[in-house]
Amino acid sequence: MYTQAMDLAPKEERKTVRSAEEAALEQRFEARIDEGAFIEAKDWMPDHYRKTLVRQISQHAHSEIVGMLPEGNWVTRAPTLKRKAILLAKIQDEGGHGLYLYAAAETLGTSRDQLLEALHAGKAKYSSIFNYPTLSWADIGTIGWLVDGAAIMNQVPLTRCSYAPYARAMVRICREESFHQRQGFDSLLVMMREGTDAQRAMVQDAVNRWWWPSLMMFGPPDGESVHGAQSARWGIKRISNDDLRQKFIDATADQAKVLGVRLPDPLLKWNEERGHHDFGPIDWSEFWRVVGGHGPCNKERLAARVKAWDDGQWVRDAALAHARKQATKEQAA
Ligand code: BYC
Description:
Distance between the termini: 44 Å
Bound molecules: benzoyl coenzyme A
Strand order of the largest sheet: 1-2
Shape: globular
Radius of gyration: 23 Å
Helix content: 55-70%
């Protein structure tokens, strides 16, 4: 009689057989990455690639969901029906982006519940930018212009990310995100061109507060980016943190001129030789403080998410009870 034990080589041999197999799989995977092929959920992938993606995609999903909070703060205070409708639609889009991204992370074998548990326990990261307060209506336009502008700059290259489910989610997200950026710019332009002096001052104040945190969204300098080189090698990140930051600064410096606002950096200057703007030093100690949980709103944001999760328990219970009832009915039919 054949037993399972008879099918297997001795323990030591098994280890080498398995690792030789794995080495071949890894070689095939690397070759596919080099060819620029997309990796699908069912394809073999190294554990580290999978973990890197779960980390990045879940941080991205959490950012979308937490990012709804600073804007939600202004829904009841939007100045016109048109601006309120736009803001509501934008926040709703962000909820949808979070869901696409959680679904993309789930294709890698980590459940949404696990991802949310990590967020609620304060173990998972989300973008540093959402730990700043929205103090005036001009902050909403500025978030659209600068924060969504930075988000698109970072996300367009992700539409070519080697992991296909993430890349596909990014195609949809980027389409919507470009409207988010435009509505922000439009809202600021109206205030700058048709507004009062007080409104123009409000816009300038918002830009002064959001400029530097927006530059931090791209992550630490390349020399300190722990994951940058490996993610570039795997085709997850197509453009480095510093290169994306520079592209964003170049694009926004020109847009600021159209708006008529000053960017709060006395060292910001076009450098003909480099073909880019030079800019002043970024306060990375502030970035790490915020990422470490000590920004102006970290506690408030996390508490709001935990409360929303707890308040929604009855909805999840009801949906599960309904699904069970349906399944029993179908079985009986
Ligand atoms: N905030 O090795 P690095 C949006 C962490 S929201 C917090 O360079 P990586 C929107 C990083 O996670 C925009 N943490 O990392 C929504 C790592 O820590 P761990 C969100 C940051 O992953 C609503 C450590 O620093 N977009 O669109 O290679 C309204 C070292 O960094 C940040 C995305 O998430 C940060 N800013 O590169 C409006 C895009 N930066 O994980 C707009 C997808 C870095 O080792 N993500 N860290 O503990 C990415 O492209 C990359 O993850 C990053 C960082 C460029 C952000």
